[in-house]
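Appendix B. Raw example, untouched.
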Amino acid sequence: MRKNRLTEEQMNAIDRLLCEPTSHAIGYVPHRVMAESFLDLDAYLEEHYLPRFLDRYALVVLVLLYTWADHVRIVPGKRGRNEYLPTVIEDDGTHSSDVKDIDNLVRSTLLNEGPHTTNLYIESRGILITLRGGCDVLFFGLGPEEERLAQSLADANGLFLKRATEERTVEDCLNATSPTTYPRLGRTVSNHVLPTPSPLPAKTSPTPTPSAGPSSPRKISRPRGPSTIPRGRSRRRWRGSRTPHSRGSEWTPAPWLRPAPPGPARAPRCQTARRSVA
């Protein structure tokens, strides 16, 4: 005959797992949003968009549950003394619950249509999965291998696995008489998150060189090359607004470079002198 309740040892183990300083969560946002305006968006997304993501959350939970446990069954919650929430625990296979019943319990909890919180306790591995309304999925007791598997399933379904560690011990949580807030360090464990870019080096402005005296007029460099101006002549004799070295420029040569006008040819000066002597 199966026991349709939790034992004292199982309830104590669940309490200790809930007090583990390191926990994991699955969400649709890779970071922790602190803005107050995000609360309105979160409520809107929970009403209109989370039902579309419900299949992804439920798929991740069911695959992990049946990967870490061979057979499971549902233990209804108990009220009064030794109260505990509805819990899915491992079974030897003789009284296992149907997969459809497990799926309905997971979906009804995440949609706030059933119990507000449901625990999935895998005793053989010391792992606890806690489901809450609003598609809130928490993991306690994950080791490195279990974390990589949960990360792979979250990445494949477009979700993000986030790890949080509080600066406290398990005994601090168990002995606390009132809710206490501890410093925590969070990190998103996902291949979808881009690495943090390294800061760019600061730009340094060029240091001006000090001048010894008043600034002198800037010298305009001229193109180097063979000059077409006769030596001893001034460049001011060139006419036109551009230098002859400029491409496409039109310039007028100086009078001594202009060709002689057409007229009767004159004999060389030496021949004229010989004729006069004769």
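End of appendix B.
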